């Protein structure tokens, strides 16, 4: 069957500069071979999206041209291109934003995270920027879509990307079963790290943050103890004796004070995994060297995305406690402003017009494959 309908119009939220995000209209084409058209359902505002909005970027990554943000999203399959199998019209899927080239030296070495030609939806790292998923309709490669099942909501499915980041981060620490872990920073990533540690059998998970609201969510995700370091920093002193208490630390705040805390409280030859990102920051090298600590960076994910969808889809890891607010796409400015309020917000998500299984089948498009 040949598609003869005109291309659809879609709303997009496009960032033009600091605190300048605008609702615009764009054209969405028909899906080609190996592609699907999604009616987007839910999309989370990530810390990098927030940095783009508030400061125009983070570290060396700067927004240099208008960009549609968004790399944590789910949607319903609305139309299917030729050659696509395993997906059905109306199916809820989580969208993997990571698109390595598959043939550079890092991809060939089994390290696609470091792909030299990586395309990552909603990222300003490359120029031209990779456009993201804050839009009603979007064509994506079918291979980027992972079915989320019938149990969970679109908002839960949209948490697959940050959960994949955390699965990858925890994998750097090896077998965490029975080990004691410190998590500094209880935003969405820190709270999901807690959930992964709990799922993997860590015996003790102590979480620090500056706000009680964040710590309450970390506790809901499985923390054994939470400490507000603005008010009760002295409670950490009990973990500093005899060169440290924890075998592991996951630093999710990118704050110099938190990095210093991790080096103080992790025992000799323990592991610190740096998950939070920022610009240049001071590192306590004497403690790092003197205690022979392993200090590792962790970026993004690879095969962990499909694992994250499975864990969420079965609610083996229940991500609902971190979803604090939801705004329609037309209120994107309000959503970004709320996301910047850490006293109240954790994971803020956008929702999209008429998103649903029924609506996915009522576009002005053929229901069968495009040829």
Which class of the largest domain in CATH terms? Alpha Beta
Given helix and strand content, the structural type is: alpha/beta
Do you know the CATH topology of the largest domain?
A: Quinone Oxidoreductase, Chain A, domain 1
Distance between the termini: 6 Å
Question: Which strand-content bin applies to the residues?
Answer: 25-35%
Radius of gyration of CA atoms, rounded to a whole number = 21 Å
| CATH architecture level-2 label of the largest domain | Alpha-Beta Complex
Estimate the global geometry from the Cα principal axes.
Answer: globular
What is the count of structural domains? 2
* Proportion in helices: 25-40%
Mean pLDDT: 93
CATH superfamily of the largest domain: Medium-chain alcohol dehydrogenases, catalytic domain
Count of DSSP H/I helices: 12
Number of DSSP E strands: 19
Largest sheet: 7 strands, mixed
Low-confidence stretches: 1-5, 360-371
What is the structure about, briefly put?
With about 375 residues, the chain is an alpha/beta fold. It is built from 12 helices and 19 strands.
Task: Describe the 3D structure.
The protein has two domains: 8-159 and 319-360, Quinone Oxidoreductase, Chain A, domain 1; 164-297, 3-Layer(aba) Sandwich (Rossmann fold), CATH 3.40.50. Helices cover 25% and strands 28% of the residues. The strands form five sheets. Strands 3, 6, 7, 10, 11, 18 and 19 form a seven-stranded mixed beta sheet that branches. Strands 14-13-12-15-16-17 form a six-stranded parallel beta sheet, with helices on both faces. Helix 4 (160-171) crosses helix 5, helix 4 packs across helix 10 (304-313) and helix 5 (188-200) packs parallel to helix 6. It has twelve helices and 19 strands. The radius of gyration is 21 Å and the shape is globular. Residues 1-5 and 360-371 have low confidence and may be disordered. With 371 residues, it is an alpha/beta fold. Helix 8 (256-265) links the parallel strand 15 and strand 16 (266-274).
């Amino acid at each position: 069957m040949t598609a003869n309908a005109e291309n659809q119009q879609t709303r997009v939220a496009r960032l033009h500069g600091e605190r300048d995000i605008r609702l615009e209209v764009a054209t969405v084409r028909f899906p080609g071979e190996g592609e699907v058209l999604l009616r987007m359902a839910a999309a989370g505002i990530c810390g990098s999206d927030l940095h783009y909005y508030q400061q125009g970027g983070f570290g060396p990554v700067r927004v240099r041209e208008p960009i549609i943000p968004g790399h944590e999203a789910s949607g319903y399959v609305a139309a299917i291109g030729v050659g696509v199998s395993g997906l059905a019209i109306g199916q809820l899927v989580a969208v993997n934003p990571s698109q390595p080239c598959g043939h550079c030296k890092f991809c060939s070495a089994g390290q696609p995270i470091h792909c030299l030609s990586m395309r990552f939806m909603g990222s300003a790292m490359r120029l031209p920027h990779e456009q993201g998923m804050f839009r009603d309709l979007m064509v994506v490669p079918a291979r980027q879509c992972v079915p989320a099942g019938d149990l969970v909501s679109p908002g839960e499915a949209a948490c697959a990307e940050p959960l994949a980041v955390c699965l990858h981060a925890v994998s750097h620490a090896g077998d965490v079963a029975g080990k004691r872990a410190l998590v500094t920073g209880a935003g969405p990533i820190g709270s999901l790290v807690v959930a992964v540690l709990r799922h993997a059998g860590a015996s003790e998970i102590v979480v620090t943050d500056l706000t009680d609201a964040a710590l309450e969510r970390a506790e809901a995700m499985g923390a054994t103890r939470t400490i507000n370091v603005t008010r009760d920093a002295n409670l950490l002193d009990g973990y500093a004796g005899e060169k440290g208490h924890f075998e592991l630390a996951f630093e999710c705040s990118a704050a110099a004070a938190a990095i210093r805390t991790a080096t103080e409280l992790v025992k000799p030859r323990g592991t610190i995994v740096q998950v939070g990102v920022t610009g240049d920051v001071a590192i306590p090298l004497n403690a790092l060297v003197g205690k022979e600590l392993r200090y590792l960076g962790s970026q993004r994910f690879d095969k962990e995305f499909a694992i994250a969808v499975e864990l969420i889809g079965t609610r083996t890891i229940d991500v609902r406690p971190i979803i604090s607010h939801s705004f329609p796409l037309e209120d994107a400015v309000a959503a970004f402003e709320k996301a910047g309020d850490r006293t109240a917000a954790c994971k803020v998500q956008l929702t999209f017009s008429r998103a649903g299984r029924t609506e996915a089948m009522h576009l002005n498009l053929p229901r069968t494959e495009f040829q």
